């Protein structure tokens, strides 16, 4: 048994863990280990927004253009996923999710003349569809992961170069925080507020939102591609409907519990066809507000109880999450032609 916090990220604790030192978790879980040379990563969500089937192909072509821009050069992302989501206003959002293992690589990539020129062109204002990019750059002390499997790590786990042994910090309320290296000395409390840095969300066009210190992001995923028989039925008929209800609550009522934005996304291929994987993606004002919802809100407790009731029967379902917090200066949220409820625009002053 080992700590989720890698050896080179450990330091003397001034804040205690939520459990005793002799705690034994109820089941095995793992984290990916990035090389000590990785100091900061980039999580980029690149979206195309449209409404109605008549714009579907135009939006898919725009998504394909983004994927072509990822290419295979040295500064391209380490990994990317394609997902889609229909928001509460009925808009379809196609999203390419990409990860870099260093901010300087992302900066070189995004500032390529062709790519930067395309994004900044006035033509984007006349395309008839919307675009957004939500960029977050956590230091390695500012994110944690948890996997119930040992290979093919998704999301930021693609940056990992090795696998941990079984970890101690899981299976109890508060374990998410305890897996953050920063939690050894920092409460990671929210400071400041979202703000509109450019444009006016109600008017559309180009809008830039600035983040505040310790905005929190959770990506919590499910992969049922390999399931069959009873396990597939349990997931599709018991776990997934309960999960969807919780995700819909956060989408529609998240503001009351501190959730800025929640998307329950489905993986797709380049033709827009669904793949049997999904994840919930939530921006929260703070880690502690995410914790309070997880520990006490009926919508999450129903998810937890439903899962625990069938957990012993799950062998092939792949479950994971990644949770991050960010410095205010390490976030940039940009929207073009998107409706004012998109992403972090809704809650920006």
From TrEMBL:
<dbReference type="InterPro" id="IPR025702">
    <property type="entry name" value="OXD"/>
</dbReference>
<keyword id="KW-0408">Iron</keyword>
<comment type="similarity">
    <text>Belongs to the heme-containing dehydratase family.</text>
</comment>
<keyword id="KW-0349">Heme</keyword>
<dbReference type="Pfam" id="PF13816">
    <property type="entry name" value="Dehydratase_hem"/>
</dbReference>
<dbReference type="GO" id="GO:0046872">
    <property type="term" value="F:metal ion binding"/>
</dbReference>
<protein>
    <submittedName>
        <fullName>Aldoxime dehydratase</fullName>
    </submittedName>
</protein>
<keyword id="KW-0456">Lyase</keyword>
<dbReference type="GO" id="GO:0016829">
    <property type="term" value="F:lyase activity"/>
</dbReference>
<keyword id="KW-0479">Metal-binding</keyword>
């Amino acid at each position: 048994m080992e700590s989720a916090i890698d050896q080179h990220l450990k330091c003397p604790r001034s804040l205690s863990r939520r459990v005793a030192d002799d705690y034994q978790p109820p089941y095995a879980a793992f984290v990916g280990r990035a090389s000590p040379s990785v100091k900061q990563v980039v999580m980029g969500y690149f979206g195309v927004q449209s409404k109605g089937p008549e714009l579907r192909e135009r939006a898919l072509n725009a998504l394909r253009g983004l994927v072509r821009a990822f290419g295979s050069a040295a500064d391209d992302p380490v990994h990317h996923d394609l997902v889609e989501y229909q928001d509460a206003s009925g808009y379809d959002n196609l999203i390419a999710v990409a990860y870099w293992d260093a901010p300087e690589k992302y900066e070189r990539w995004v500032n390529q003349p062709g790519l930067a020129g395309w994004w900044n062109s006035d033509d984007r204002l006349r395309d008839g569809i919307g675009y957004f990019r939500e960029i977050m750059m956590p230091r390695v002390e500012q994110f944690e992961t948890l996997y119930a499997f040992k290979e093919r790590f998704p999301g930021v786990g693609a940056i990992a170069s090795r696998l941990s042994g079984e970890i101690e910090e899981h299976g109890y309320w508060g374990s998410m925080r305890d897996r953050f290296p920063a939690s050894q000395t920092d409460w990671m409390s929210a400071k400041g507020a979202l703000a509109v840095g450019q444009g006016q969300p109600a008017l559309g066009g180009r809008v830039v939102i600035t983040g505040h210190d310790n905005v929190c992001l959770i990506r919590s995923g499910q992969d049922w591609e390999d399931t069959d028989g009873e396990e597939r039925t349990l997931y599709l008929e018991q776990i997934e409907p309960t999960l969807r209800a919780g995700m819909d609550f956060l989408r529609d009522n998240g503001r009351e519990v501190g959730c800025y934005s929640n998307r329950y996304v489905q993986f797709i291929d380049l033709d827009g066809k669904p793949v049997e994987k999904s994840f919930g993606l939530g921006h929260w004002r703070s880690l502690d507000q995410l914790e309070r919802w997880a520990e006490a809100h009926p919508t999450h407790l129903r998810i937890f109880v439903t899962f625990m009731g069938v957990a012993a029967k799950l062998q092939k379902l792949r479950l994971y999450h990644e949770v991050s917090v960010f410095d205010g200066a390490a976030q940039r949220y940009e929207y073009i032609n998107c409706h004012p409820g998109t992403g972090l625009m809704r809650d920006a002053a």
